[in-house]
């Protein structure tokens, strides 16, 4: 690829590159010297399940890999013990060492679905941050100012609202910036919520006499609800390890107006073709349902296979277009200990079945009229159900389960 083609590929889907000319210059220098760029991504292992929102950044890293550059994943085991304050209105709870290591292992297993593990360098920032003396930390801190750190929107808003900011939280951006100094990174990729931390890395590199890294910022992917960012805690996510059937079905539920972003950020469909799709939708030549099926097939193919995507589409059409129940569905196993006087609270049933990640999400599903048992709609979140062996529980358009009672 020419340098112009490389830059166009890397710019796809980005919301900002700081500075754009800096990235072009680094690509040119790398081409002339044969020395690959060091491209850094920091992951604090606070949430072990990767979804399509996380994958937006990881897919950008894969593009750098495919162009021959060195991808460095920093597992922030040291900084995770602090807790990234980005976008937070309150102090994050600190993680235990056991939680950090468990989450880091899960992250590794999942990001290898996107990155080439043979070309991915994985480091833990405790390797250098954990060895700093107090004197070392003070010397690094002396290169930054409190005013600069308090420019962060989340810190500024918390100060104005009289909410506390821990001193350790102020040190977090410095730690992330120092990662860039240690690795001498050329590019750091992250979501827009990481803009302050990444730009602070440029400042600190300059203070240490290094060439400043380029900040490449990806947008936050809106979740299935079409309102809030994709998040497991909000239940509006598509996990990269979900089954083809579940992945396909969830993607078919996104609002039509999100299809462009999902095509651009979550697939490899060329931009010219995406533009043609947009024009076809606007003119009425293309039906939104068929375009959404194409989108779902593209994404399922990336994480599974084309064959799995075709099967998932056929199942979706059979179940949802023809109003049938799936041929196969998981058992919802209920023991006598799960029942009180032969009944179970509908919210508890949904959470136990894995149809909702939390009680609040289960309540929301019931209130929306999205829950049925053997076709009978349940609309009262306080309802207690008398389960019967073989009953089919449905939550939303795509989650089914069959009750199995243990005696």
How would you explain this protein's 3D organization?
By secondary structure, the protein is an alpha/beta fold. The protein has three domains: 3-218, HUPs (Rossmann fold, 3-Layer(aba) Sandwich); 244-321, Tyrosyl-Transfer RNA Synthetase; 331-405, Roll (Structural Genomics Hypothetical 15.5 Kd Protein In mrcA-pckA Intergenic Region, Chain A). Helix content is 46%, strand content 14%. The protein contains 18 helices and 13 strands. The strands form three sheets. A six-stranded mixed sheet has the order 1-6-5-2-3-4, with helices on both faces. A five-stranded mixed sheet has the order 7-13-12-9-10. Strands 8-11 form a two-stranded antiparallel ribbon. Helix 1 packs across helix 2 (20-33) and helix 15 crosses helix 16 (306-321). The longest helix has 17 residues, at 167-183. It is globular. Mean pLDDT is 89; it is low at 87-92.
The percent range for helix content is 40-55%
Q: What percentage of the residues does DSSP assign to strands (E)?
A: 5-15%
Indicate the CATH topology of the largest domain: Rossmann fold
Low-confidence spans: pLDDT under 50, at least 5 residues?
87-92
Which overall shape is indicated by the principal axes computed on the Cα atoms? globular
How big is the Rg?
A: 24 Å
Structural class assignment: alpha/beta
What's the N-to-C terminus distance?
A: 65 Å
Q: At the fourth CATH level, what is the homologous superfamily of the largest domain? A: HUPs
How confident overall, as mean pLDDT? Answer: 89
So, CATH architecture of the largest domain?
3-Layer(aba) Sandwich
Total E-strand runs: 13
- Largest sheet report: 6 strands, mixed
Domain count: the total is 3
Indicate the CATH class of the largest domain.
Alpha Beta
Count, helices: 18
Q: Write out the strand line-up for the largest beta sheet, numbering strands in chain order.
A: 1-6-5-2-3-4
